[in-house]
Design brief:
24% of the residues lie in helices and 26% in strands. The protein has 276 residues and is an alpha+beta fold.
Length: 276
């Protein structure tokens, strides 16, 4: 999941590799509210808004019953896209918006509901929607059509030169950047409360395609080690459960196809920046 100079001696590399082989990390359940804790001031919006075809939100009639389900897992429309954009504003969702109500959206809705004393159904009813409307602003076209989880904020300045794995804990996003240009972007999660992912500037010192942690006896495919036993790697648990879990310090990637492509491009010595 995470730079040293290319001129490192073989003895040092071997020593670092040995360290990683006996550390490693894997998924573990974590407790938390699922968000980053940074919520916007409420806006007193009383009527639901659904984006029109051109990305401009328009008013929609309120449902007859507060228990009526507006959106649930499997739905796909412009309203879901707006829902996801608003969940991003309050730090409960970090992918998309995609317009499809998937597992990440369902988990984000459950977290939002639980934090506010609403039934944690994972489905959006009138009460959930009205509460979210009051806490967020009407999303613009940029917010509605972010692609692939690309964060709206600019990357850290330390990511703007050279070959960099630019990893934001705030947006839970990894950007693969070359000379300031974003080549690819993917969703990531981090270490749990007592095994946090280290912040700072590092370098990839060892790549291990079929790595298995000897400490936790768990697979760490496409591992790219950058700080002791901490690495960027594919996580089966993240793919299956989303943000409901966490790692023992590694940077988990849930998209296997994306990290396979990344693994083939990253070289030992490439920079890794982990930041808030």
């Amino acid at each position: 999941m995470r730079t040293t100079k290319m001129g490192r001696s073989l003895a040092v590399v071997a020593g670092a590799a040995a360290l990683a082989a006996v550390t490693g990390c894997t998924a573990q359940p974590v407790n938390g509210n699922g968000g980053n804790g940074k919520h916007r001031s409420p806006l007193h919006i009383e009527v639901p808004h659904t984006p029109s075809g051109d990305g401009t939100p328009s008013a929609a009639p309120a449902p007859a019953s507060s228990a009526a389900v507006l959106w649930a897992r499997g739905d796909s429309d412009a309203g879901v896209r707006e829902l996801q954009a608003r969940l991003r504003q309050v730090g409960w969702l970090f992918d998309g918006p995609t317009g499809t109500y998937d597992d990440l959206t369902e988990n984000a809705v459950k977290g939002f509901q639980g934090k506010r004393g609403l039934p944690q159904t994972g489905q959006v009813d009138s009460a959930t929607w009205q509460r979210l409307l009051r806490m967020t602003h009407t999303p613009g076209k940029w917010e509605l059509y972010l692609m692939g989880g690309q964060p709206a904020a600019a990357p850290d300045p330390r990511c703007m030169t050279g070959r960099v794995l630019c990893i934001s804990k705030t947006s839970r996003t990894l950007r693969w950047m070359i000379d300031g240009r974003t080549v690819s972007t993917m969703a990531v999660r981090f270490g749990a409360q007592y095994t946090p992912t280290r912040d700072g500037v590092f370098s990839v010192y060892w790549k291990s395609r079929h790595h298995v942690s000897t400490l936790y006896h768990s697979p760490m495919p496409y591992a790219m080690f950058f700080s002791g036993g901490q690495a960027v790697h594919y996580s089966y648990d993240f793919a299956a459960r989303g943000y409901a879990g966490g790692s023992h310090g590694c940077v988990n990637v849930r998209d296997e196809e994306a990290i396979a492509a990344l693994f083939s491009q990253v070289r030992n010595g490439d920079k890794v920046v982990v930041y808030w």
